[in-house]
Design brief:
This protein is of the alpha+beta class. 58% of the residues lie in helices and 11% in strands. It has 9 helices and 5 strands. Strands 2-3-1-4-5 form a 5-stranded mixed sheet, sandwiched between helices. The chain is elongated, with a radius of gyration of 33 Å.
């Protein structure tokens, strides 16, 4: 499967032992160290015989186990180590606090341990975890925003892609909409003669030309191969035709690598009231075909 490396998403299915288990080993070692310190440093309490008498210890143990489960779950995130640092540090401090809290049910700890180790370390751990969550959320939000943009952007030309073109079209309710479908003339010959890298350069330079037209009322997209589309929100066909003529003339002036010139053909159409996107695009496609058949390097308007 070509996309298998991307299938795990934010959580990984194939956990790295070092990433996943080392924090758990460290947490276990920390809990054992806290237990030893308490057993060696402070006197023991008498323990009750029923679980009700030791309910505080049961709840403290559950809290400790939950914190360790959170630590294990969090380290399944497939994010770089720098983003894990704050949350791991906060959870380790919090787990240490919970371990002291658990031992308090079995050991006579002095008050300063409760104040300065349990309470202060718990708050410190929470603060670190909160900061870590902030950085993780910001990272995920940035990744989501980048992925959303990439899903609507053509990789080669950086213009909006066909999906964006159709979505924008569906959102427009006004009838003052004009559409161009533009095809690069003799593009196959350019690829055959100069190679696909030069063909890609032609597409990029033409895309830059279309991008320069953007002013909020004119939006260009690459909808496939050497085919581009432009949506115009203009009050009249005359103004739309001026834009089309500008595209033709500027394209004729383009020179690639000092020697390569090319032209484009344009099929144009005006959206009728209550006309579907599919019907409009069919009419414009026919107009583009007519432009190609009538000599290329020209504009043809769809009937109606």
């Amino acid at each position: 499967m070509p996309f298998v490396k991307y299938e795990n998403g934010l959580f990984t299915k194939n956990e790295s032992r070092k990433t996943l288990y080392m924090p758990m080993v460290f947490s276990l070692a920390l809990c054992v160290l806290v237990m030893i310190i308490n057993l060696v440093s402070f006197p023991k309490k008498e323990i009750g015989h029923s679980w009700l008498e030791n309910s505080g210890g049961v709840f403290d143990l559950v809290q400790l186990l939950i914190l360790n489960f959170i630590l294990w779950s969090f380290n399944r995130l497939t994010v770089k180590a720098s983003l894990r640092r704050w949350i791991n540090l906060g959870l380790f401090i919090w787990i240490m606090s919970a371990a002291f809290d658990l031992m308090d049910e079995f050991i006579h700890q002095p008050l300063w341990v409760g104040y300065y180790i349990e309470d202060v370390s718990r708050l410190t751990g929470m603060l670190c975890v909160s900061m870590g969550i902030y950085f993780i959320v910001r990272y995920v939000n940035d990744q989501y925003a980048d992925a959303s943009i990439d899903s609507y952007r053509d990789e080669l030309t950086h213009l909006p892609n066909r999906r964006y073109f159709r979505n924008i079209f569906l959102e427009l309710n006004t009838t003052n909409i004009y559409v161009f479908i533009i095809d690069v003339d003799f593009f196959k010959k350019i690829n055959d003669k100069y190679g696909h890298d030069i063909g890609d350069e032609v597409l990029r330079d033409f895309a830059n030309l279309l991008s320069s037209l953007y002013d909020g009322n004119v939006t260009a997209s690459r909808i496939g191969g050497e085919e581009f589309a432009v949506i115009l929100q203009l009050p009249s066909k005359q103004e739309a035709n001026v834009v089309a003529e500008k595209i033709l003339s500027r394209t004729r002036d383009l020179v690639i690598r000092g020697e390569i010139r090319f032209t484009v053909s344009i099929g144009a159409g005006h959206k009728k009231e209550d006309e579907t996107v599919e019907n409009l695009l069919k009419r414009v496609d026919v107009a583009l075909y007519d432009a190609k058949c009538r000599g290329k390097n020209r504009i043809e308007w769809a009937d109606g």
